[in-house]
From TrEMBL:
Gene Ontology MF terms in the entry: gibberellin 3-beta-dioxygenase activity; metal ion binding
Coiled coil in keyword set: no
EC number: 1.14.11.15
EC main group: oxidoreductase
Residue ranges occupied by any Fe2OG dioxygenase domain in the UniProt entry: 206-307
Protein name: gibberellin 3beta-dioxygenase
Gene3D superfamilies: B-lactam Antibiotic, Isopenicillin N Synthase, Chain
Organism encoding this protein: Lithocarpus litseifolius
Top-level taxon: Eukaryota
Length: 353
């Protein structure tokens, strides 16, 4: 069976689209990172606390509320999710320890041109004329091969925390995915691939998962640059922990850009392209971006979750009414990953029925 990591081997990037700059050495934003004002668009703060719903996973109406959020916004915040706060704090602490290393030290863990894991800038970078004020570290399974280059005698703690977090996030992602399918009246038999996530090993050999640590350093001219450019996520869903620094924004048609303010103890869950395809565009694959702060570093951890890389997906018949035709053809996850990696926002147009 193919793996997500193997899927990216066929999609190599140039080193210029992998290696971050030394942000700590910059006193001003270099031209390579200056975005024109027209790239930003105004961000509305109207109803900022009510437009993105906060849903309690233990609420008796959670299935209905989650389904509604997926249709209207494609994003919601989740409370009582079962991930221990102490573990989230450990992940944040270890991520901060990694990003606090010198630029020279972090480059020892640089992602290879054909690699999927390691230190580097966002994979969407080649689609934009300017670079983003961002650095990241991608993990699939154990990060030991990279971090032992950084901490030869002190990497066990980082590895243990990240592996434990991935196992627990995988359980949460499966639970959420089942609830979301239940909101569509999709039976467990129709999503049999989900059963592969039920073991305790945390193995990512079947379902497609990745953990992305993100750092958005404080910027001397925050209005001149972009933390993460507008994009949609590729897989079924993304579960995000963000520190208490604003920056994440979503786009809503007819409204514009809206902030997703941090909520204490909550995780942000957003729909990706694959759920958009499976629901025949009923669920929104929310467009989102990150802006940066002039005084504070913003950290986030994003857990991406999807079906096995060889899984063939197409819109569920149960979401199609008698007068509605499928918007998208059948496509393997691996094929769609390749299409998205080469076409970004135009990817869905390549699989329209």
């Amino acid at each position: 069976m193919s793996t997500l990591s193997e899927a990216y081997k066929d999609l190599p990037l140039d080193l210029q689209h992998i290696k971050p700059v030394d942000f700590a050495s910059l006193q001003a934003v270099p031209d390579s990172h200056v975005w024109h004002d027209s790239s930003f668009g105004a961000c509305s703060d109207e109803h900022e606390n009510s437009l993105v719903p906060v849903i309690d996973l233990e609420d008796s109406n959670a299935i209905e509320l989650i389904g509604q959020a997926c249709e209207t916004l494609g994003v919601f915040q989740l409370k009582n999710h079962g991930i221990p706060l102490s573990l989230i704090e450990e992940v944040e602490s270890e991520a901060a320890r990694f990003f606090a290393l010198s630029a020279r030290q972090k480059l020892k863990a640089l992602r290879s041109p054909g690699g999927a894991t390691g230190y580097g800038i966002a994979r969407i970078t080649p689609f934009f004329s300017k670079y983003m004020w961002h650095e990241g570290f991608t993990i699939m399974g154990s990060p030991v091969d990279h971090v032992k280059e950084l901490w030869p005698h002190d990497h066990e703690r980082f590895c243990d925390v990240m592996e434990d977090y991935q196992k627990k996030m995988k359980v949460l992602a499966e639970r959420l995915t089942r609830l979301i399918f239940k909101s569509l009246n999709i039976s467990d038999e129709e999503i049999s691939w989900l059963s592969s996530t039920s073991n305790d090993s945390g193995s990512t050999s079947s379902v497609s998962t990745a953990l992305q640590l993100n750092s958005y350093p404080p910027c001397p001219e925050p209005n001149q640059t972009m933390g993460l450019a507008p994009h949609t996520d590729t897989f079924l869903l993304t579960i995000l922990h963000q520190t208490q620094t604003n920056g994440l924004q979503i786009f809503k048609d007819g409204v514009g850009w809206l902030p997703v303010p941090p909520v204490e103890g909550a995780l942000v869950v957003n729909m990706g392209d694959l759920f958009h395809i499976l629901t025949n565009a009923r669920f929104l694959n929310v467009l989102h971006r990150v802006v940066v702060s002039g005084t504070q570093q913003r950290l986030s951890t994003a857990y991406f979750y999807g079906p096995p890389i060889d899984f063939i997906l197409s819109p569920f018949s149960k979401v199609l009414n008698s007068a509605q035709a499928p918007h998208y053809r059948s496509v393997a996850v691996k094929e769609y990953v390749a299409i998205k990696a080469q076409n970004l926002e135009k990817a869905l147009s390549f699989i329209r029925a």
